[in-house]
Design a protein that fits this description.
By secondary structure, the chain is of the alpha+beta class. The protein is about 35% helix and about 25% strand.
Length: about 110
Amino acid sequence: MKTNQLTSLLIKELTNAGILCWRQNNQPTHDTKMNNGYGGYRAHNGMKGVPDVIAIIDGQFIGLEVKAGKDRMSPEQILFKRRCERAGGKYVIIKEKEDVDKLLTSIVRTIV
């Protein structure tokens, strides 16, 4: 499964479970008004390394980084993970559909 498909599945499953979550865009954004109407990309000015999906469950911040195939975490993502965990948040790496299933099972156990 490709990264985008896995990310979509993750958001769909979390949303269906009634969990507040969203896709965190951290890519440059195309702006048609730049360059006299010819368009261009506006740089992302947010924090680097932010996970792909963010969820809040029972007041707990959970960062969800999707890495399919041979994808690896960047140094900025590793640093964000460390900072998140140090601050009391949780951070999960999703590599395949089974990871989504495990995450949902563990969430259900925690909530129930």
